[in-house]
Design goal:
Length: 389
């Protein structure tokens, strides 16, 4: 993506879009139930029969590994009368079967109904009519992506050139060294906008600005068409830690350029944000939990040969983003509180918030496309043949 400052002040999204339950529902339909959502790391369900649940908006999904070690996902809903199937966060399925906790209808790991104990027989009952509702699953870089659309486009379309661009990083081989889960009282779009701009860095992130010295320029570094006086990073910094020092070598496959690139920020919208460094990655999985709240799962990923890291080394790597992520979450909550004002119609993006503006345009375009699709299919339905009585 190009880095280019906006030429003028641009209007932000309507404030009501960050609060209104009906609008939130539209966004769930448009973005969260129709796109590829990074939901877990593959290592969380390593063995056949392992499962965990994932909540995206109001939808609970069971993600599991079947007998052939293939990942599968199903709506966490029994076909009998709709009970959830898996009641916890994660576990191991006994005998490779999913048994509903209500009347014990039993499914295999391909989602086929295989037993309905004690049901009185009728001639019309066909087991094959009651398969679990399957959800599309794919993986990239060790991240498990789900797509709740019926017939989704391939994940590759969403990833674009990332598999090639990050090929040397081998994200798929990395493992979780630390996970922190935070429930944040802010709309999901505030979290994405916050990740997209560094205008807030000097007042909010003194620790980050001490290492990424370019951020002392509040997102304007390299955008003003003149050589920068400040270096991009603190002199002699080798990675993003509080003092810039590294205790691990760079990832094994990196070339010299990549070893010198201390920080790449990337977003696979709407759910996955990546802070990429030469020797570790800090990933964020974002899950909307309501119109004004999200759950964020922060992982620190390392090469497995270094794990488990001695506690002081782990803290050395975790500290900077733990502090910075907390600062961001706190500021997003304050922003969520402030935009309750009846006077506040929308914010504005200043030139160096070009990426937050790009995100807002992505949101507008997605809603518009979905709106016109919905109205087209509404028209088609209205114009269609009348049902016979
Ligand atoms: S609701 Fe699942 S068996 Fe009845
Ligand atoms: Fe920030």
């Amino acid at each position: 993506m190009t880095r280019e400052a906006l030429k003028r002040v641009e209007p932000g999204l309507p404030a009501s879009w960050y609060r209104d339950p009906e609008h939130y529902e539209r966004e769930l339909q448009t973005f969260w139930y129709a796109r590829w959502i990074a939901a877990a790391r593959e290592e969380e369900i390593p063995q056949p029969g392992d499962w965990r649940t994932v909540r995206i908006g109001t939808q609970s999904i069971v993600l599991l590994r079947d007998e052939s070690a293939r990942l599968r996902a199903f709506h966490n809903t029994c076909r009998h009368r709709g009970s959830v199937l898996c009641t916890g966060d994660k576990g191991q399925l006994p005998r490779m079967r999913i048994v509903c906790p209500y009347h014990a209808w039993t499914y295999d790991l391909a989602g086929r109904l295989v037993a309905t104990p004690r049901r009185m027989e009728t001639p019309d009952f066909r087991m094959e009519d009651y398969r679990l509702y399957e959800v599309a699953v794919d993986t990239w870089g060790g991240f498990v992506f789900l797509n709740l659309a019926r017939d989704p486009a391939p994940l590759a379309d969403t990833l674009a050139d990332r598999p090639a661009r990050y090929g040397n990083y081998s994200f798929e081989h990395l493992r979780i060294g630390q996970r922190i889960v935070a429930d944040v009282k802010a709309n999901w779009k505030l979290i994405a906008e916050n990740f997209s701009e560094c205008f807030h860095c000097p007042p909010v992130h003194p620790e980050l600005c001490a290492v990424v010295t370019a951020y002392q320029e509040a997102g304007a570094w390299g955008l003003r068409g003149r050589p920068e006086a400040r270096p991009q990073y603190k002199p002699a910094a080798a990675t993003l830690t509080l003092d810039g020092s590294a205790r691990l070598p760079p990832f094994q496959g990196l070339n010299e350029d990549e070893k010198r690139t201390l920080y790449i920020a990337d977003m696979v919208l709407p759910a996955l944000f990546l802070n990429i460094h030469p020797d570790y990655v800090n990933s964020h999985l974002v899950f909307p939990t309501g119109p004004q709240s999200v759950r964020i799962v922060y992982d620190w990923l390392f090469e497995p040969r270094h794990l488990p890291l001695p506690e002081p080394d782990l803290q050395h790597y975790v500290a900077l983003w733990e502090i910075t992520n907390r600062q961001d979450a706190r500021n997003c909550e304050w922003q969520q509180q402030g935009l309750q004002s009846r006077e506040f119609a929308h914010g504005v993006y200043v030139p160096q918030e070009f990426d937050a503006h790009r995100f807002a345009q992505w949101v507008r375009a997605g809603l518009e496309a979905n709106g016109s699709r919905a109205s087209r299919s509404g028209r088609a339905r209205r114009a269609g043949p009348r049902p016979r009585r």
